[in-house]
Each structure stands twice: as C-alpha cells, then as structure tokens.
Design a protein that fits this description.
The chain is an alpha+beta fold. About 30% of the residues lie in helices and about 25% in strands. Strands 8, 9, 10, 11, 12 and 13 form a six-stranded mixed β-sheet that branches. A four-stranded mixed β-sheet has the order 3-4-6-7. It has a three-stranded antiparallel β-sheet with strand order 2-1-5, with helices on one face. A hairpin with a 5-residue loop joins β9 and β10. The longest helix is centred in the middle third of the chain and has 15 residues.
Length: about 240
C-alpha cells in the first residue's frame, strides 16, 4: 500500500528530519496505511491509501525517480519501520538527461535514448502543492513563499515537454480563473497521462524559450495538468 496525495494525484512525500531523504510512504498492510492516512487527514492533508497491484509495482517504483523521490519509508508509525534508499531497491537504465549536447547528437542519430526529467522542480512542486491545498485560499506563509521561490528557481533551469496538436495547432487549456494556459510536462510519464488518445506531438523546450512558443492569448503554462497541476505566469506577461 502506498500513501497517495489527492492534491497532486501522486505519492504523498515527506522529508526525513534526520537524513533529509525525500520519502514515499509504503505499508505492508492496509490497517497500518489507514492509520497514517487518518493521522495525515487530521492535519489537513488530502490523502488516501492505495494498494499497488503486483503487476504494476515495477512501473510504480520506477516512476519515483522522475519525481525526485529518493527513498521509501516502510510502515511509518510502527515499531518495525524501515528506510530504504530507492537506488538500492530498484535500478533503471543509465540514460543522460536531455541537454543541448543531446539535441546536437540527435541531428546525426535520431535513435539516441535520453531522459526528459525535471526532478528538482517536480519534487519542490509536490511539496508546495501538498501544503498550499491543505487550506484553499490561505495566505502564503513565509515557509510557503520560500518553497514557491525555490520551485520557480528550479523551473527556470529546466527543459520540458511542450505539447502541440498533430495538426500543428497549439493546445490551450482554460484554468478555473477563466484564463488560458499552455500545458507543459516535466517528463514523458506526465505527458503520456495527458496524451492517452495519442493525438498530441511533443517537443523538448528550454524554460527560457517558452515565452517565444506559448501563444500570446495564454497567461502562462500549466505544468503536469494530470498531476501537480501548477499554473505559472510567464515573466514577460505579468
């Protein structure tokens, strides 16, 4: 069983006070998972426990890398709780992260494999959304402001998957505020969640180039609309 945040639709994460590991919470029985879910709900978090079927566990654990999660805490709150480093528990292909050098190599060899990932931004966004959605409409505390600034700093250093329609048309989503946003994705898994009907094409774009690509009618971007769903205004359009 894994603790899921309904605020992010991703595993609920905590930072270990002693080791500073960023942990997903796992449990080997439903009762233990429900006890922690009840405790976290009492603190205002939107969480639930979910069983991970055996045939989905490899994919689930592999997905944690792109979120910046580096550890698993098994049976939190019990006498036999155990911290497990993710890299010691599961391995994955050693592929480079997309870069300008990779882009040049792709011109010569389109079969080069690479990761498009932004684990630093994704992790910070998860922490921010978990906290800000505990109390909708709350004023930003100093701690939340610092977390938001850290998230923006990571965002500005990233490379993202930019979605467009197969017919070359630009894809735009409307936010609850009625404004238009360009969907953006931290990694291929988040893009695939959104592109289940396979009607979109993907481009890898530096954060600094977004202002040139996002349509002028858009206020900004919405990152991982099927996950953290963070809306960010573009600096030149504030």
């Amino acid at each position: 069983y894994v603790m899921i945040s309904d605020a992010t639709r991703l595993p609920f994460i905590e930072c270990d006070e002693e080791t500073y590991d960023d942990e997903a919470l796992l449990f080997d029985n439903q009762e233990a998972a429900q006890n922690i879910a009840d405790s976290l709900t009492g603190k205002g978090y939107l969480v639930r426990s979910m069983e991970v079927p055996v045939n989905q566990r490899l994919a689930f654990f592999s997905s944690l890398f792109s979120m910046g999660i580096n550890a698993l805490l098994l049976n939190k709150g019990m006498d036999k709780s155990q911290l497990i480093e993710l890299a010691e528990f599961i391995s994955r292909p050693e592929l480079p992260r997309f870069s300008s050098e990779i882009a040049e190599q792709l011109k010569k060899d389109p079969n080069i494999k690479f990761h498009v990932e932004n684990p630093e931004f994704h992790l910070t966004a998860i922490y921010f959304v978990q906290e800000i959605r505990k109390n909708p409409g709350q004023e930003m505390t100093d701690e939340l402001k610092a977390l938001y600034e850290e998230m923006l700093a990571h965002f500005g250093r990233g490379r993202y998957i930019f979605a467009a329609r197969q017919d070359q048309g630009i894809l735009v989503l409307k936010g609850k505020d009625g404004q238009a946003y360009q969907p953006l994705f931290t990694d291929s898994q988040e893009f695939q969640k959104f592109n289940r009907e396979k009607k979109l094409r993907a481009m890898v774009v530096d954060a600094g180039k977004l202002v040139e690509l996002v349509p002028p009618e858009c206020s900004g971007v919405v990152v991982n609309p099927m996950g953290v769903n963070v809306q960010l205004k573009l600096a030149s359009r504030n």
